[in-house]
Amino acid sequence: MYHEYGGFWRRATAITVDKFILLFLSLILLGAAYTILGLSFFTVTPTIFMMPFIVSYYLTNVTLNMLYFTYFHGTTGQTPGKKMFGLKVVQTTGEPLTPGLAFLRWVGYLISGIFFYLGFIWVAFDERKQGWHDKIAGTVVIRTRQLFMPATSPPPPGEGPVITADYTRVDRE
pLDDT averaged over the chain? Predict the structure, then answer.
């Protein structure tokens, strides 16, 4: 069996889409918090008295991030960004992720980002395109489809590779 792994740039673009979705949700939460507290975006000056608000906002964002990635990877293997770019996270055996593995992968995100994001950059150099978070959770990111279809027509039936239901490619002999 053969997997086409998701490369660095495609994965980076997909996570950028996911981070924009999370930013939008975060701004909605921030706006709601400001409204509930009766604050204005233009008149609030950060003070030491705002520290509990800042800490709770940060913790809410971390929780939202954890829930987002754990839910999408644990249920479908694809966040909206990955789905948009034809990527899917699976176990190295080809099986779908469980919610527990998805959570472990998210914890791996924290580790991948600690040292100047080297765990994410590792994807560009690894043979199987695994970041540190993938290695920790025993996952790979595979391509589910091409972004841009080639101008040529597909091979006639019975010729060319076969893509199976679990997104693996089997070359015909």
Answer: 87
Nearest to 69, CA basis, from 98, 105, 93? 105
Cα-only R_g, the chain: 20
Q: 1 pLDDT exceeds 50? A: no
User: What is the DSSP track for the chain?
Assistant: -B-PBPPHHHHHHHHHHHHHHHHHHHHHHHHHHHHHHT--TTT----GGGHHHHHHHHHHHHHHHHHHHHHHHHHTS--HHHHHTTEEEEETTSPBPPHHHHHHHHHHHHHHHHTTTHHHHGGGT-TT---HHHHHHTEEEEESS-SS--SSPPPPTTSS-EE-TTS-EE---
Q: Which two tokens stand for residue 39?
A: 């604050």
- Global pTM? 0.80
Taking only the tens place, the pLDDT of each residue in 37-79 is 877 777 667 777 778 888 999 999 999 999 999 999 999 999 9
